[in-house]
Amino acid sequence: MFIIHGHYPWKKKRGLVAEFCETCQCIQPFAVIDLFHYLHVYFIPIWRSLHSSSVQCTACLTSVKLEADDFTAIVLENDKQHHPLEHLLPRTNALLHRIVQIESQLAEVEDPDEAPPLDLILTLYHCYRDESVQEAIADVTRWHALDEEQRQGLREAIDQVGFVRYKEARAKPFLERIVKKLYLKFHNLQVISLVVTLVVLFFVGYAAIQSFLPRAWNWMVIPLMFIYLAICLGVVWFLIWLYRRAFRRFIQHVMIPAAREEGVDLIALGSVMARIDNGQETCKEEKVKQLAAYWKLYAEVLTAEGQDASAASEGAMTHPI
Predict the structure, then answer these.
(1) Using CA atoms, how far apart are residues 247 and 253, in angstroms rounded to an integer?
(2) Which domain range does residue 291 map to?
(3) Selected residue with higher pLDDT from 221 and 60
(4) Where residue 315 falls among pLDDT bands split at 50, 70, 90?
(5) DSSP letters along 132-194, please?
(6) Dihedrals φ, ψ of 124, to 5°?
(7) Is 238 in a helix, a strand, or coil?
(8) Beta-carbon neighbour count of residue 265 at 10 Å?
């Protein structure tokens, strides 16, 4: 008996939270969107399971891979009185609200030396979710009690994290641009179609050999099928090798030189590719995901060129703030 079953995705908006939007460069309300998978039998929903969650800026619709647990609370859709940002921020994102409070206190300090620099506060907005920066926020609040050496060390630690985030923020738009130059003669679907065709031809060939060979030659059936199978596997392996070679040549001769020319950090570029492939970074373009899946090959090419994890790409790099 043939049973039609499977699952289909369904998105549901759970509520609102406050988050810093890298695209808008300010704090915005974000919608928490849950992606459910519905198990069905004959298209009748049987079971629902939560597959993943993400947040989306209500202004520019930029999606960020953050879980609901990353926020203090979630304001539900029917709780209209807390939808304005001034109510949403302290209720849903206590850590970000603390940074806003620190910034607001700058205007109240008469001596500039007793308050943290404005550019340091702005850097916190970009990287406040990093664990090392979260530990440093407590030190920023007591800036007036720190000596000059402690202030310098704190600033260097936060700037280092912020600079890494800045380099990674430049890498993703570069990927979306450079992937337009990627032209493949065949794609994954074509390789799968070829494999299925070869499997079908294998059984057709087996039936044809048994039908046309004389009975006295039946002993040749198995050796001939093994030879045919070896040829099929050889063709598939050769296509996979060609596919990987096409990506290697693109990475080595197009992608890396272009990144160096534009001043995009090569290590940050590999980090972004790995996060896209692992689902930690949202990406809508299928071609970018296809390229990101070869982040290990990208790392091999960098290693072959003598690029280590501490090296930066050629080109001028400036601080974002």
Answers:
(1) 10
(2) 179-304
(3) 60
(4) very low
(5) HHHHHHHHHHTGGGS-HHHHHHHHHHHHHHHHHHHHHHHHHHHHHHHGGG---SS-HHHHHHH
(6) -60, -35
(7) helix
(8) 24
Q: How many domains does the chain have?
A: 3
Query: Cβ distance 168 to 268 under 8 Å?
Result: yes
pLDDT at 194: 67
Tokens of 247: 């990506």
Angstrom CA distances, 64 to 46, 67, 146, 189, 278, stand at 30, 9, 35, 29, 14
Q: Which of 29-33, 99-103, 228-232 has the highest mean predicted lDDT (pLDDT)?
A: 29-33
Which is higher by pLDDT, 149 or 50? 149
Residues 145 and 221 in one domain: no
Q: Phi then psi for 305, rounded to 5 degrees?
A: -85, 0
Rounded to an integer, what distance in angstroms lies between the CA atom of residue 147 and that of residue 3?
Answer: 72
**Quick one: which of 83, 99, 101, 102 has its CA closest to 91?**
83
pLDDT tens column, 141-161: 777 777 888 888 887 877 777
Decide if 272 is inside a domain.
Answer: yes
| CB atoms inside a 10 Å sphere around CB 140 | 21
* pLDDT score for 321: 32
